[in-house]
Amino acid sequence: MKRENQTVVFEFIILGFSNLNELKFLLFTIFLAAYICTLGGNTFIILVTMTDPCLHTPMYFFLENLAFLDICYTTTNVPQMMVHLLSERRSISYLGCVVQLFAFIFFVGSESLLLAAMAYDRYIAICKPLRYSVIMNRVLYSWLAASCWTGGFLNSVVHTVLTFHLPFCGNNEINYFFCDIPPLLILSCGDTSVNELALLSIGVFIGWTPFLCIILSYLYIISTILRIRSSEGRQKAFSTCASHLIIVLLYYGSSIFTYVRPISAYSLEKDRLISVLYSVVTPMLNPIIYSLRNKDIKEAAKVVGRKWQASSSLSFAV
């Protein structure tokens, strides 16, 4: 594509829900409620798993990381989305856009890899229970978590550098809720073929590969569960895995649809609704699903609640 009328862009205008101005207060209320649920639910999981020694296991270590990632990547865009709903000026500085894109892609990529690590943990726990403590030792699960964060960081560095290396020729209106790769590629007046190739190739590693590994893990898990003689044992195993699968289908389905496609297939009017699913809805559902479907979390919450109540009563007495 020819570079015509190239100018220096100092800020971007986030159009977001500007075409739904009559619904801005309703949308603000919905996003605020979702954000509060996300912060409260994920903070609750982090506090409970850190406080109760019984939950100091690989499964809950990964769950802590997942909760922290959900808080982080929701905070990168939802507060700004709410501000823009009630503000006449819906702009973000060029540097602010760079930071937002880097942070969002970093946290989303890390979570994509982390979900695969969680599936591997469940595979070892259910398919090789006698060797679980030997295989999934502290060194291994710490290394897996660190690898997820490192992979997400490197993925974000590559896409952020490639995206903002592109020229923007005057038009600075982003028809989206926040600074993300697809709308910025469409906005650019430069050649985006390298960016598209990076999205598709890295997307195979960061998106499709973890997703297929999870599916393969759960095929083995389901096969093992079906051989369990105890109906109670089967039910407990299915319950543990079902919550993870729900998140996997929501998260990978929406994120792969958003990023791992040719740019010619993008339709921002439709795609921005999909972006709400993985950037707002999924992080809100994570703590609800894991808390309501997990007996260990609920029991630990009761124990922690009693301890805090006892300590509060003691401090008042003193």
Question: Would you mind describing this structure in some detail?
Answer:
- This protein has 318 residues and is an all-alpha fold.
- It is 75% helix and 3% strand.
- The protein contains eleven helices and three strands.
- The chain has helices at residues 24-51, 58-75, 78-86, 94-127, 132-135, 138-164, 181-187, 193-226, 231-259, 268-292, 295-317, and strands at 11-14, 91-93, 173-174.
- It has a three-stranded mixed beta sheet with strand order 2-1-3.
- Helix 1 runs antiparallel to helix 3.
- The longest helix is centred in the middle third of the chain and has 34 residues, at 94-127.
- It is globular and about 65 Å long.
- The model has no long low-confidence stretch (mean pLDDT 83).
What structural keywords apply?
single chain, 318 residues, mainly alpha, 11 helices, 3% strand
Question: What can be said about this structure in brief?
Answer:
The protein is an all-alpha fold. The protein has 11 helices and 3 strands; from the N terminus they run βαααβαααβααααα.
State the strand order across the main sheet: 2-1-3
Helix/strand-derived class?
mainly alpha
Percentage of residues assigned to helices: over 70%
Characterize the main sheet: 3 strands, mixed
Number of helices in the DSSP assignment: 11
The N- and C-terminal alpha carbons lie at a distance of 74 Å
As a whole number of angstroms, the C-alpha radius of gyration is 22 Å
Arithmetic mean pLDDT: 83
- SSE sequence, one letter per element: EHHHEHHHEHHHHH
Number of strands: 3
**Segments where pLDDT lies below 50 for 5+ residues?**
none
Tell me what portion of residues adopts beta-strand conformation: under 5%
Shape: globular
